[in-house]
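Your task:
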Amino acid sequence: MAKKATGLTANVTFLTGHNLCPDMFELTKRQQLIDATCFGSTHEEYVGGLEGGSFVVEGKPIYDDANTSPGFDSITDQPGSVTFTVAPGCTIQVNCVISNMTLRATHNADSRLSFTGMTSGPFVETWDETP
C-alpha cells in the first residue's frame, strides 16, 4: 500500500547564506502557453512553451549561533541549488533566485521569515516508487 507524505517528513535545503528554521515551502512549476489559433479555427489552440517556476520558503528566524543570519545584507543575483524534500527518497532539486525576503514579527505570536523567488533551469525529480 502506498505511503502518504506528511509535513513531518518534509524538509528544504536552502541557499547558502540565507538561514532559517524552515517549516513551510511551496514549489510551483509552470509552462508558458503559445497561442497557435489561426483564422478559420473553430476553437482556441495552444502549444506548450518554456517551462519555469516559483518558490516560497518560510520558517522561524534563528539566532545566537554561528551561521544563522537570514542574509538581508547579502541577497545574491546568482541562482543556487535548493532541494525540496516531501518524504525520504522524494525530492525535487532546482536552482533558485531570491526575489523577495520578508521578516515578520507579531507581539503575541511567532516571528516569521520568508523567501520568495523564481526557479532557474530544469527541475530534477527523485521519487521513491519502491513498494
In short: The chain has a mean pLDDT of 92. The chain has one domain: 7-126. The radius of gyration is 19 Å. Residues 7-126 form a domain with the Elongation Factor Tu (Ef-tu); domain 3 fold (CATH 2.40.30.200).
